[in-house]
Amino acid sequence: MTSASKPAQRQSLANSRLRKHADYVRAYEAGRKRQSSAMSWFLAPQIIEGATAPAAARVGLTVGKVIGKAHERNRIKRRMREALRRHVDLLPAGFDLILHPRRVVLTMEFAQLEREVLRILELAGTEAARSARHSATSAIAPGPHAS
């Protein structure tokens, strides 16, 4: 059986979504705002007490009223969720990613939106790896004030 004849496995964002307001607030405080042409985004490490393995990655979407009416905001969220669903495996483990799309997402071709989301996911993965390396080296090497 070739891969062309095998149906594509449908992934889900259900277990990878931020749901609680407190998680959004914590991610905003711990993360740094970054910009792309179509959206701004935050990446923050998850803080889970007593966890030995990194937690599953989570993603959140926020679309403010300034973007448009409810049906326009809902359409943007549907399109963003679909683009994320296709690449959920690229979310960095142990991190929360929040996306704030701009109004231009409403009129973008879906392929262009998907490329933009993919680029952000790759940047987030790179930054998460750099952050993990930095925290691992700082945990090993004592600072100048260690006794």
Summarize this, please?
The protein is an alpha+beta fold and 147 residues long. The protein is built from three helices and four strands.
Annotated CATH topology: Ribosomal Protein S5, domain 2
| Helical content class | 25-40%
C-alpha geometry: globular
Question: How many strands, which pairing sense, and closed or not: the largest β-sheet?
Answer: 4 strands, mixed
What is the CATH architecture descriptor? 2-Layer Sandwich
User: What spatial order of strands do you see in the largest sheet?
Assistant: 1-2-4-3
Number of helices: 3
Mean pLDDT: 83
Task: Tell me the number of structural domains.
Answer: 1
> Any idea what the radius of gyration is?
18 Å
CATH class: Alpha Beta
Can you tell me the residue ranges where pLDDT is under 50 for at least 5 consecutive residues? 1-8
Give the N-terminus to C-terminus distance in angstroms: 63 Å
- Strand-residue proportion: 5-15%
Q: Structural class per helix/strand content?
A: alpha+beta
Q: How are helices and strands ordered from N to C?
A: HEEEHEH
Strands, count? 4
Keywords:
disordered N terminus; 147 residues; alpha+beta
Question: Would you mind describing this structure in some detail?
Answer:
With 147 residues, the protein is α+β, with helices and mostly antiparallel strands. The protein has a single domain, classed as 2-Layer Sandwich (Ribosomal Protein S5, domain 2). The chain has three helices and four strands. It has helices spanning 21-30, 70-86, 110-140; strands spanning 32-35, 39-45, 58-61, 95-101. Strands 1-2-4-3 form a four-stranded mixed beta sheet, with helices on both faces. Helix 2 (70-86) links the parallel strand 3 (58-61) and strand 4 (95-101). Helix 2 (70-86) packs across helix 3. The longest helix is centred in the C-terminal third of the chain and has 31 residues, at 110-140. The protein is globular, with a radius of gyration of 18 Å.
